[in-house]
Design brief:
With 319 residues, this protein is an alpha+beta fold. Helix content is 40%, strand content 16%. It is built from ten helices and seven strands. The relative contact order is 0.15.
Length: 319
């Protein structure tokens, strides 16, 4: 029997839900539309209508400003999520439930599917040194061949249907976590993967579950996600403290720029505080200049991450 994993988060009331604004938020969004200030994709009022917290309003204003500056184009859709472990509540929820291309952010989920199989196999699915090294290359170096290798192993221990078995295992074991996750393809040799999907909310629920030890092999997952590598949450963020520890996975294609992770920072008394940050920017078509596009969108995510850090720093007197 599969043990199901559930995640409790701060509930979203109807007037706070980004896809169901009440009259007050609807009128505010309508006014923002007239002024050309909408943050979300077109059409939609999700980001402009959201006003859950002062931090959420700041994120909306920042993304709106970046759209004005051309750092995010009108046809690009975004999703943002921040969960505060100290307060135990969601403090930013913008277009969280919208399925987005997953790119390489799907890789921790692939590893988690294998860990689920280990947990239920009674020793028949082993965490060998070869598997561990594959996962490390997959998560630290974003190795596509190693990702496909882990997918094959999951499928081999399931029903041999390929990537679909990875999705099946995730949804059997944690249906409340992986609600918008869709895994239908391996990573091509070109690295151009556009069909796998997940939502910012799925990543948020996953990160919360792993951080709180609700997933099998949570400590090992965090160890691998903390291995030195690229990130858009701390690296290149001016003023970000060297004491911060980042557990993350980026995603990058000519149509998707994203990052999702947990950031842990001590306060001035040495007590540690942690929070999640998920940022996704998605295009409807391939960017002509991939290098410039991914660099600029990565900087947009860094600006949001810096805004979140400044808020947490003020709230908890972080270093």
């Amino acid at each position: 029997m599969y043990e199901r994993i559930h995640v409790d988060e701060q509930p979203i009331t109807e007037d706070e839900h980004p896809l169901r604004p009440d009259r007050r938020t609807f009128l505010a969004a309508l006014a923002a539309t007239s002024a050309g200030l909408l943050v979300g994709g077109v059409p939609g009022i999700a980001e402009a209508a959201s006003s859950r917290t002062s931090l959420q309003r700041q994120v909306v204003e920042l993304v709106t400003s970046m759209r004005r500056q051309g750092m995010i184009q009108p046809n690009e859709k975004t999703s943002w999520s921040v969960y505060d472990f100290t307060a135990r509540k969601k403090v930013v929820s913008i277009n969280e439930g919208a399925p987005r291309q997953a790119a390489s952010m799907i890789k921790p989920l692939v590893a988690q599917a294998y860990f689920f199989q280990m947990d239920g196999s009674r020793g028949q699915v082993a965490y060998s040194e070869d598997v561990r090294k594959c996962m490390e290359r997959m998560l630290q170096r974003s190795s596509n061949p190693d990702t496909n290798r882990i997918m094959d192993l999951v499928s081999q221990h399931q029903s041999r249907r390929g990537p679909a078995d990875v999705e099946l295992v995730l949804k059997q074991r944690a249906p409340a976590v992986f609600q918008e996750t869709r895994i239908v393809e391996k990573i091509p040799t070109t690295g151009q993967t556009y069909r796998n999907q997940a939502s910012a909310h799925d990543y948020s629920r996953f990160l919360i579950s792993v951080w709180e030890g609700r997933m099998p092999n949570s400590k090992e997952m965090l160890r691998m996600m903390a291995l030195p590598g690229g990130d858009r949450l701390a690296k290149g963020v001016a003023g970000f403290p060297p004491e911060a520890k980042v557990y993350n996975k980026t995603g990058s294609t000519a149509m998707l720029c994203g990052d999702m992770g947990v950031i842990e920072i001590p306060d001035q008394r040495g007590r540690k505080h942690a929070y999640t940050v998920v940022g996704i920017i998605e295009r409807p078509s391939r960017a002509e200049n991939y290098g410039a596009w991914i660099r600029n969108r990565g900087d947009a995510i860094r600006r949001v991450s810096n805004l979140v850090y400044q808020d947490m720093k003020s709230r908890y007197q972080l270093v």
